[in-house]
Design a protein that fits this description.
The chain is an alpha/beta fold and 269 residues long. 22% of the residues lie in helices and 24% in strands. It has a single domain, classed as Metallo-beta-lactamase, Chain A. It is globular and about 50 Å long.
Length: 269
């Protein structure tokens, strides 16, 4: 490993990990179309300017699953940077439909172990929360997709957790209980899950991601996602980041929570 190790939160589930000159991105997403675009079935192109401004260089991209808020800007990042994108069968089909050349697409699945320059990656099972839109955004990708895609074209088939090792540092993205030094996780679950999970992972640092309202554009202040009625979708009850930080640091000491600011770089010691 050459140089230091650092990360940037890119908004939503997006994270950039940098080791010297090598850059690995997970789920970069910047376009943030409004919910109305999904409900009306409109075709929505990736915002090439935002992708170029916010992720100007990248060697590899890992996609945890094929929903639009994880995948829709990946093809644009590949075009801008020459990166190779790795993901599930649906992810690969969507990237091909968006015009990404085959040599810039790599299929991964649970159990895959890949070496990406300074980074060793284990692909682990992940669990996605239930949403009211599951019937529209999960399933098999349609054949003969044509760009620009509709948001409902980005359908989840598999959901991955990712264990990324760089030097002696192990970084976990997702909710598979693998031991790691740093845990990036959506703080959108119940206390009865988080505390045992974080104790099993034994993370020294927890970083909450994917808490912000991805229907709001980047030129507006970040806002937490709206609550769904707890009686209808109990897994979608939203805690504030302050509540999450207190919960974790009280129940899992000496683990500490870092709440990142978007696009700012954080060193990893």
């Amino acid at each position: 490993m050459r140089g230091g190790l650092s990360f940037r939160w890119l908004g939503v589930a997006g994270v950039e990990i940098k080791s010297g000159e090598h850059i690995l991105a997970i789920d970069p997403f910047f376009t943030r179309p409004p919910l109305s675009k999904l409900l009306t079935g409109q075709r929505v192109p990736s915002d090439h300017r935002l992708a170029a401004e916010n992720l100007a260089a990248c060697n590899f991209i890992l996609v945890t699953h094929a929903h639009w808020d994880h995948l829709m800007d990946v093809a644009e990042v590949v075009r801008n940077t020459g990166a190779v994108a790795c993901g599930s069968t649906n992810t690969c089909k969507v990237l091909a439909a968006a015009g990404v050349p085959p040599d810039h697409i790599r299929l991964i699945e649970v159990g895959s172990q890949v070496r990406l320059l300074d980074f060793s990656v284990q692909v682990l099972p992940g669990r996605h929360i239930r949403t009211p839109l599951d019937g529209l955004i999960n399933g098999v990708v349609h054949e003969n997709l044509s760009a620009p895609l509709r948001l409902s074209d980005y359908k989840m088939d598999s959901c991955f957790s990712l264990l990324v090792s760089c030097g002696k540092t192990r970084i976990l993205f997702g909710n598979c209980p693998a031991q790691a030094d740093i845990l990036f996780i959506n703080p959108n679950d119940l206390a009865g899950f988080y505390l045992p999970f974080i104790k099993t992972v034994k993370a020294r640092v927890v970083v909450p991601i994917h808490w912000d309202n991805f229907f709001l554009p980047l030129n507006q202040p970040l806002r937490p996602m709206l609550n769904f009625p707890a009686w209808l979708y109990p897994y979608l009850r939203r805690k504030t980041l302050g509540d999450f930080k207190r919960l974790v640091e009280t129940g899992c000491a000496p683990t500490r929570v870092i709440i990142p600011t978007i696009f700012n770089q954080f060193g990893i010691d």
